[in-house]
Design brief:
By secondary structure, the chain is of the alpha/beta class. It is built from 4 helices and 8 strands. It binds pyrazine-2-carboxylic acid and zinc ion. The site of pyrazine-2-carboxylic acid has 9 residues, from α3.
């Protein structure tokens, strides 16, 4: 059984948002259309407390998009984004949400970022999505959404490591492309056995 995983199609990642991904809203009609081809649809939502440690605003003198050493590795310091309950955290208004079997939220732990829909960035704390998919007998995942080089990338690589057959529809994703991150992500996904279509 297959599922469509729609990653973080939220206002803050679309033009006009706090961490806008160029062309982030262009993919919404195509994602909506693709939902019709899948028996299961899962949406993810980046969902941070206002004092999340990944925000540059939480570190004195730190500039947004600078990089800092965290206990679990290097962490990009982002502009404040996807704060729980705000308009920026809501799904893009045109995204069809009625088809969602499950909405999974991530990034709630103030100390740990969570790009992947499966694990927080410590690579050990699970979100529960693996169990949800496996107990439903879902084996094949197609991923779309934002951003190609962060949350889509981490989710796709984790899913492949967990034994799912993973396809990323690159035409229905958009990238932040910060400091070579898109090329690195593409190589990493291919090395993990992710099919990029
Ligand atoms: C994302 C940076 C920070 C993403 C989330 O959805 O790709 N990127 N938080
Ligand atoms: Zn985030």
């Amino acid at each position: 059984m297959k599922a469509l995983i729609v990653i973080d199609v939220q206002n803050d990642f679309c033009p006009g948002g706090a961490l806008a991904v160029p062309g982030g809203d262009d993919i919404v009609p195509g994602i909506n259309a693709l939902m019709a081809e899948f028996p299961a649809v899962i949406l993810t939502q980046d969902w941070h407390p206002a004092d999340h440690a990944s925000f540059a605003s939480q570190h004195d003198g730190a500039a947004p998009m600078s990089v800092m050493q965290f206990p679990y590795g290097l962490q990009v310091l982002w502009p404040d984004h996807c704060i729980q309950g705000t308009t920026g955290a809501r799904f893009h208004p045109d995204l069809i949400t009625d088809r969602a079997d499950l909405i999974i939220r991530k990034g709630m732990n103030p100390a740990i970022d969570s790009y992947s829909a499966f694990f927080e960035n410590d690579h050990t704390t699970p979100t529960g999505l693996e169990g949800y998919l496996k107990t439903r007998g879902i084996t094949d995942l197609t991923m779309v959404g934002l951003a190609t080089d962060f949350c889509v990338n981490y989710s796709a690589v984790d899913a492949a490591k967990l034994g799912f057959a993973v396809t990323v529809r690159a035409d229905l994703c958009r990238a932040i492309d910060f400091d070579g991150s898109l090329a690195a992500a593409t190589g990493g996904m291919q090395a993990a056995g992710v099919r990029i279509a």
